Amino acid sequence: MPPIEVRLLAIDLGLRCGWAAFGSCGLIAYGSRHYGNRTMLRKAIPRILDEYPQLELIVVEGGGDLFVPWQKEAARRGIAVKQVMGEDWRKALLLPRQRRSGADAKAAADGVARDVIERSGAKRPTSLRHDAAEAILVGAWATSFRSPRDESSRGDTGGRR
Predict the structure, then answer these.
(1) Which of 6, 25, 57, 112 has the greatest number of beta carbons closer than 10 A?
(2) CATH fold for the domain made of 8-146
């Protein structure tokens, strides 16, 4: 069987970096890693991207100076990069009551991310860190997956991207 090709990498930006890899069949793998400082993260980015030679798009939630190294390395490799803020994907994937506070949103993200994992057939987590859950949802949003509450409109982002 040929290897599954990762086409999209979703990143929840931070020194504790959540990531989710997506292919044509949906979510393939996900995780979280802590980088002790900005320099360690910056040096790790090329190695991370080396793992995905067929990568076409990186979607990064967050901004600031931690976004710049991702942007530069993606440009160097000819990979498209999209920056998104949490409010964008949360509006599409979480109910208004789930977005009332940061704590509510993080708790809801865990449940919806577990639904994405279940639907995709990816390995179930023993524990799921909030940054990995958010990376899964950033990727799901970017690939037009919809929340289980909205199965009928999968693929329709209503103009939101």
Answers:
(1) 112
(2) Nucleotidyltransferase; domain 5 (3.30.420)
